[in-house]
Amino acid sequence: MNIKKGEWLLILFNFIYVISFLIYYIKIENYEFLSYIFIMLVLFSVIALTLKKTGFNYFVLWGLSIWGLLHMAGGSLKVGNEVLYAFRIIPIWVTENFYVLRFDQFVHFYLYFVMVFVIWGLLKKELKVEGWNKFVVYALICLGSIGIGGLNEVIEFIMVLVLAETGVGGYYNTAWDIVFNTLGALLGVLVLMFVNRKR
Prior knowledge:
Blueprint: H1 5-28, H2 31-49, H3 51-54, H4 58-74, E1 78-79, E2 82-83, E3 88-94, E4 99-102, H5 103-123, H6 134-162, H7 171-198
Antiparallel strand pairs: 1-2, 3-4
Helix pairs in contact: 1-2, 1-4, 4-5, 5-6, 5-7, 6-7
């Protein structure tokens, strides 16, 4: 396999933080995020093994890699008495039940923004047939990103059912996750439309 210099940098970046957090999670016995590491390794392996076919650019690859780091850090690193995911960034909307904007919500927004470009990267080679309605395609890409976000919430729910203790949160947390997944996907599609129009 011919690995480019930029790809080696990506591999090194991911290897360092995954191994570091793997050791850390074993030490603190965080089985929830140990399972997430397994899932991430599967996803990253699929991306690496199919990269020649998918042709993902460095924007997508770095976007996913940075998300991996944010996700691993968010669920385990402490800020005060709480994990980083609970860190309150800006008090946009605060009630007794929820706080917007938290680090967790920002990461959800970021990931599903990037996911739009992942889906586009997979589809664009298949969209050379005349007659495609570009707005329908963009709508499907947006819904695809949101749908992947929904699958993530299903996985988190399974964690709640299987593990004695998790950091998933309750109803409001799940609902806000879905909201920020949707907002990230919408912005991603708008940026994608602008970039493609410029091209």
